[in-house]
Design brief:
With 398 residues, this protein is mainly alpha-helical. Helix content is 84%, strand content 0%. Belongs to the major facilitator superfamily.
């Protein structure tokens, strides 16, 4: 019973991570003229947010050791809630820049800490469902924003509502804070969860590395990091610029575009829910490969000029992306050793956020200088590069 309650708290924590991630992109077509920002300024804000997550994810191991995972989760949720409330009242671009810093810092440490915890102590379907709850938050963000844009013509009310949801989650985390200590005691007593070696005893476990430099020398690590880079690149580029593409190239209204972006995140969410069950029968490696093929098919469909057909492709990209990130994370202790997984989880989070930090803004610059019509070509290229990297890892680690 306590273990189930603990999982629910962890799942709720990932909702708080997902809601802000999809909010800026869906609201940007309305925010931009309201505050007098340039088209590509959303990329700068995204870069600042992701930069904060890189810093906090790299520091996550030390922070969790000092304060505990429960306290870090609570503090992170409060940081994001306060930043989102500030967004709703921001009078200018400068304030958005300042508030983007705590918004990013709030997400990074808890992301790395919880991913490491679940990869080490729970089976693959729990990792998929964990990120499914991130998708719940990411799907809710555009839906909420679309409602307030359509009904109240106000993106600020959308941010206010999301901040209230975050504060509510923070209250839940505060009330359940003692649960983290009880579960830790239960784990030490022996038996909350299966250990890594018990779940996949036949998998390759590589020896422990003595330093950060030697961790990077483990075979397959560099290729895996490249896969994380392009995964987050494609996921965040589609989420940030998808609505702008639908408005600018497909002549949709801002509220309709935001609704379709919510379906993209909905594809990720539902996909992770379903693949959580599939992982009970299918190996992560096979599931990741099939999912990447689905995402590529979706990317090709987005290129098609037929009305509404390209929207199906957008949803297919979301469904295809669904199990890739949690699958790669869950493979970390099995492929590279439990002794190396804590260090590598922080590295993977940092590289993933690097993809979120730089690739969407780079596309923003490209689109500003050329045309937003390049959006589907860039998204498809990122997916292909990600698949090439994961397949190379599969050849290295058999």
């Amino acid at each position: 019973m306590m273990a189930t309650m603990f999982l629910i708290v962890i799942y709720l924590s990932f909702i708080s991570l997902g809601i802000p991630d999809s909010l800026l992109g869906s609201a940007w077509p309305v925010i931009r003229p309201d505050i007098g920002a340039s088209f590509g300024f959303a990329g700068i804000l995204s870069m600042i947010v992701a930069g904060g997550t890189i810093v906090s994810s790299l520091a996550s191991g030390r922070l969790v050791q000092r304060a505990g995972t429960g306290n870090i989760t609570l503090i992170s949720c409060c940081l994001t809630a306060g930043a989102l409330l500030g967004f709703s009242m921001a009078p200018s671009m400068i304030w958005l820049v300042v508030l983007a810093i705590p918004l990013g810092l709030g997400g990074g440490a808890i992301d790395a800490a919880l991913n490491h915890y679940v990869a080490e102590n729970y089976k693959a379907h729990h990792m998929n469902w964990l990120h499914c709850f991130w998708g719940v938050g990411a799907t809710l963000g555009p839906i909420i924003m679309s409602f307030y844009i359509a009904e109240h013509n106000s993106w600020r009310d959308g941010y206010t509502t999301v901040s209230m949801i975050q504060f509510t989650l923070a209250i839940v985390l505060f009330v359940t804070l003692p649960l983290w200590k009880r579960v830790a005691v239960s784990r030490e007593a022996g038996g909350l969860n299966s250990k890594v070696s018990q779940e996949k005893p036949g998998e390759l476990i590589q020896p422990a590395a003595s330093s950060k430099a030697s961790v990077l020398q483990i075979k397959g690590v560099k290729q895996t990091l490249i896969a994380f880079l392009f995964y987050c690149g494609v996921e965040s580029t589609a989420g940030l610029w998808g609505a702008s593409y639908l408005v600018g190239a497909r002549n949709m209204t801002a509220e309709t575009a935001a609704g379709w972006i919510s379906l993209y995140y909905g594809g990720i969410t539902i996909g992770r829910l379903i693949t959580g069950f599939i992982t009970m029968k299918v190996h992560n490696r096979v599931l990741i490969r099939c999912s990447q093929i689905i995402a590529i098919v979706g990317g090709v469909i987005v290129l098609l000029p037929q009305p509404q057909v390209f929207l199906v492709g957008l949803i297919l990209i979301g469904i295809g992306l669904a199990p890739i990130y949690p699958g790669l994370l869950h493979e970390t202790p099995y492929r590279f050793g439990s002794e190396n997984s804590a260090k590598l989880m922080g590295f993977q989070m940092a590289v993933a956020y690097t993809g979120s930090t730089f690739l969407p803004p780079l596309f923003g610059v490209l689109a500003t200088q050329t045309t937003i019509n390049l959006f589907p070509f860039v998204v498809l290229a990122f997916i292909v590069l990600m698949m090439m990297s994961t397949e190379k890892v599969n050849r290295i680690i058999k």
